[in-house]
């Protein structure tokens, strides 16, 4: 692994929207971030990832979507969650809804399609980091009934896997830590 790639991967940190500045992300940077997702590995070249991008005044539509889905599922989360999610929508200059669109005749196992979308998401996070853009990958209303359909994903297995909030950090982003070393997470079978 190239040391530059490893540095980028290990430097990337989650930064919550409350810690973003109001600075807009240039359109060319945002397009490159999204283009990187299109190069994620996927079995059978199904390219199941789909994105809905909310920015500028479009973030108000995201707030409205959150309220609509929350009100259709009021017993799942306390009202404080609704307020937090709606606040986050205006704190991030860009929110990307990350979805999976599965074709009817797809023979690729569902788990592989979900993994492909997750790989596309990691590409987004790393490309954002390379441009000095911070990210927060959250789920909020992603798994609630009606969310995928509201974003145009209405197939039987279609889903939203999360929302990526993008912005520039107000303060210095600190180095991350891991609970245990990679050695504790590997089983080597050599014979």
UniProtKB/TrEMBL annotation:
Q: Supply the name of the protein.
A: Putative NAD(P)H nitroreductase
Q: Which UniProt keywords apply?
A: Flavoprotein, FMN, NAD, NADP, Oxidoreductase
Q: How is the cofactor bound here?
A: Binds 1 FMN per subunit.
> What positions does the domain Nitroreductase occupy?
9-168
Which EC number(s) are documented for this chain? Answer: 1.-.-.-
| Matching Pfam families | Nitroreductase
> What is the enzyme's class at the highest EC level?
oxidoreductase
Q: Which cofactor does it need?
A: FMN
Which SUPFAM superfamilies does this UniProt record tie to the protein? FMN-dependent nitroreductase-like
The family line of this record is: Belongs to the nitroreductase family.
Residues bound to FMN are: 12-14, 43, 137-139
Tell me the organism: Lentisphaera araneosa HTCC2155
Q: Name one GO molecular function term.
A: oxidoreductase activity
